[in-house]
């Protein structure tokens, strides 16, 4: 490291050296030796597809949070409070703000749990905080503004009543005026006036409008941070609320929006994560008053999406949430070592696998009120033998007695479970589900996987409207009820033997008199929903290009079974977008693909009748104007990116928009390309969904070679000798 850099590191306070370890001269002086020592290791790791070659450098620059916490633990609270008032010399943020913006949840919890309000770095000597604290001291003694106004109104009514009585008793107006002047009473001071009177030492700093400032602080609290010219909170700031709660983080238009941490002073609850319009929205971590914790996705203030909840007793749930309820696929770990793995319905475990604490016994079947119900199978592992034994049977209606069938290496009992469905006209909420004749050899475990198959659960949810009036083709069915489900076929993913890719079922339907209803197409094909992304890049004066993924597809008519189509993505409830194209192509081409805020819905989900199937596909569009140089280098960058991907995986190509329909054999891709061409010709499609991309940064100029100085010294020496001789 240079001398200048060493001076910067020496000036950096000790606490911030743990945050920015690359500023430490001691760490940086050993960079070259460490790089030589780890060169072979990093190269080998990269060759094996492990950590990247620059992992060592990345690790060196990572904050030393463990050392920082030990450093703070060795200090008194008063000393820590003084350190928390200091801003980071590099980012100009407080320690809590830095930890919040970088998602260091454990450091945030440590600071707030230990220092409480002091962790938010409000200067106790500032005038606004002094006024706030004086409000807090006098809050128990002060009347509220409503109480003062009510008493004042009562006094005025009593005064008016007395004056009216005297006016009736005395006819002289002069006497009434004299008595009225005697009745004048002193007006009761407002709460802010009482607080202002106790702050005599600060009257000069509060100015002429001091009472108004005191009132504002009492009603709104203290805000420290940037504002727009009209006074709107905007940017990174912090607020001390009248209730004692504290918040530090990002503001947009006076609302908590972005990353921030909120601490409830009463109860000690703590949330650190993403906000949207004053609501917890996005990814964040909540610490509840009882000590339980949740880390995962939030939607409009409620737990929704994937998340992990650790309860105060140590048990935990990891899986899907919908509006603060466990709903969908998940895993519940209990304290005794047992666990439930499968489908949850409104906080209740309804089907899946129950792993007993012994580790040698598993139960697979249906559950009701968190207890086994109906048909199921026990899977026993005997000793250290690799094989297992299955015992199928049925639980009684009360769920208390188990009636086994047989204990064999293979089961001869027909797999049978009950599927939870919306209330039917008869009031039933469970229907039987079995394998059909085409699924010979399938086991109870296979049937449970079908019951937990997400497309099947989505199809079941669609029966809410079908339970009353159902339209199949052109036939309207009244009061149709689902009596059972027969699984005709199921397919597993070749790459993942435990993942189901397609299921075909035959629903057993009856009318209101119990007669079997047979629609024209009885079989229902269930597939996962697919969302595709059209990335449309256009430079001024050139034809737009579309990014397609090229992968191996057995159904492709190509002789090599290669198919070019729009890449698939995943869109979460908080509008975040994920997928291989987002992770790989987005950073390489500087595209903003992480959120639907930079996209537009091109083709809405195309669904079929729920009694024929539930496969649906939708297409989102990301359109951006890019620089000509970016388009010229696009093919080369995609080739380099494809070369870095593992063998036999998806590659990416750029295709002119007009050629997509002739190149791709995927129907949805061709339909989306044709839709874009038609709407662009009719000028009904936005030219871009995000701001134009800035031009690429030009390469730095080539350094001029350093001139050789020795010939100059030699020439000067010869000249000096010649002068001496003269």
From TrEMBL:
Residues 28-43, 174-191 have a biased composition (Acidic residues). Residues 1-51, 150-191, 678-726 are annotated as: Disordered. The lineage of its organism: Eukaryota, Discoba, Euglenozoa, Kinetoplastea, Metakinetoplastina. Residues 624-651 form a coiled coil. SMART domains: MORN. Keywords: Coiled coil, Kinase, Repeat, Transferase. This is Phosphatidylinositol_4-phosphate_5-kinase_-_putative. Pfam families: MORN (PF02493). One of its GO terms (molecular function) is kinase activity. PANTHER family: RADIAL SPOKE HEAD 1 HOMOLOG. Residues 693-704 have a biased composition (Pro residues). Residues 150-165, 715-726 have a biased composition (Basic and acidic residues). The keyword Repeat applies.
